[in-house]
Amino acid sequence: MTYIPFFRLANARSGTSSLPGLLPVLLIVLVLLASALGGCQKAVLYPPGEGPRTPVAISADAPLADKAFAAYTQGDYRLASTLYDRLLQEPGLSRRETVEAWKYFALSNIAYGKHHLGLEALEKWRSLDPDAQTGAEWLNAYNRAMTGMSGTGAARTLEGTVQDDQRPWAVRAESALLLARMQWEGGDKASNAAALQTLETLYAQTAAPADAGLRATLESRLFTLLQETDENALARLAGHLTADNELRYPYSVILLEKARRTATDSADWPPAWQAIQRLRHTDTFADRLLLERVLMPLEQEFGRPSQGIALALPLTGPFGNIGWKILRGAGVAQWELARQGNDLSVTVINTAAEGWEQRLQALPEGVSIVGGPLQKETYTTMQRTGLLRQRAFFTFLTSLNDGEEGRTAWRFFSSPRDQIRSLLDFAQKDLEIAQYGVLAPDEPFGAHMAQMFRQTASEMGATTTVSATYTTKDTLTWSKVLHTFLRVPAQRPGEDTPMPPNPPFQAVFLPDGWQQMQALLPHFFYYQEDRMVFLGNALWEQGLSGSRDTETRYFNLSVFPGSWNPYAPTAAAMSLASALDESGLGQPDLWVGLGYDFVRFASMLGTPEKGEGAQAMNARIQSAQQMDWSIAPIRWTADGLAAQKMFLFTPAANGFAPIDPARFKERLENTRARHADRVKMLEEARQQKRQ
Hints:
The model is unreliable at 1-54 (pLDDT under 50). Helix content is 50%, strand content 10%. It is globular. It has 27 helices and 14 strands. The termini are far apart. The protein is an alpha/beta fold and 691 residues long.
């Protein structure tokens, strides 16, 4: 089949059309009609192995032009090239005869595989007939010539054409598409990024409302190219998909082709359907028919997807309130999915009720994904009774046992390491701090967090210079602990005021609750250490949530992590908040967002078949995790290990507020400068007394 790329009617930028907003299907019909009419002028390019092969009787004394065209139509492109070359050397050819000779000389060489020679002939044809380059035949030949060429020479030729403002938009667009394909076939990350940038730049040139037809054509053309792309190249391009870019060109077209290929059976159909629905329910495509052409045959084959998932949560007892919050968010997600046509059932099992193990065991086989549990002891029971082997469990736990995560079960919650990495990432990159201290309560939780901080800091290239502990209930000893921890110098002779300490670290990790921090941190200032950056943990959020008139004097350089950001919500978080508000269900928080995100995430995993291993599930996760999150996004490695890049906050008068890295660093630098001035003043006063 002859491939028709861009065409005269689509070339609104070249001034050859006054109908740039026509629907893509109308453009195709008109172009096909134009191509058919062009056949009356012998304007048909037959690639090797295609086209008529009926011998044409030509007498020996027939004109050279007739012999050349007969060779071309019979598929003898080598002979046709030779005859048209001879014809072009004959004197007295009319302009029309010269144009036709260059045209078929170009087409013959391209069909014969002489792509460089054919490209030179195309340029000669274009110079004699400028309108030719906006027609399907010229562009088709140009595509075949450039596709047949390889190496940096072809890339340079395409780049030059793309940047040539004197060339019609259709030619530049075709060149950009071919260049992008050449780039993504390069195979490395830089080449993929270059291809995507080429396509984004091209699409940006069609921003005007009247350019809808051009955008539609670009979408359709890219989709055609992606269908011809091998699995590895498409996977590399799909690796650039994120929740932020998947609804814009070219990423939207990549997502569509990825979804089309994913829908190979009923088990993989639901996540593919979900992806297409995300594209359908936005104004992503100018060519709306493109989505329907992909979706309709798939729905005819597999039908509308029907899924079942379960939530194993405590709905009574001390953790019942959290369970109901998760369930509230899950209900919003299920309702949203139902509005999009997704038949998703959610079964809830109360793990605080007697017989929950039997009810979990009795779930239908189609319910293969479970969210929960929320408590470690419940997880242990599931493991002991063999329930974890029957389904894929995404736990709301901070950690799993060594070797289990990504194999026995998965984590759908932040870990202590996530908290520490988020803090260190900020302190290292934004504040340029390399030395740290750790001051932890002398209890198992404090010891565990302190050890994890030292290990994580070492992995990230930071140094923990001092570690110390304090007794939580013996507050009278805290001053002595801080005196040693900060290495407070002894008061020297002649000093009215002792010099401030100079500890070998610039930030301190404090893994304890907010109530303890309010009593502990003033000791730093008592010893004149006002430059220290205080790194808290997620426990601070619990103490600060809902508080009013918080005393922040000692916490101006404090930062702590959290998984929910009520101050700068994502699009998903705003959708969740709007749905809750409409239903009178209050404001969302971390637990509501967790339930909301889990149901949407699970719906994108499809319906794994019984016995499907961890490796297959980890592959499903790689695609599902690209969704728009309401909580801080969770990312899984190819081995199923989860990590969450958490939001960062600082205590504020009304509770807490998001960190502004630039302002925080400025505040730190100003504090350090004032501290240095104070030290200088004290030293000068001491020197004067000695004199």
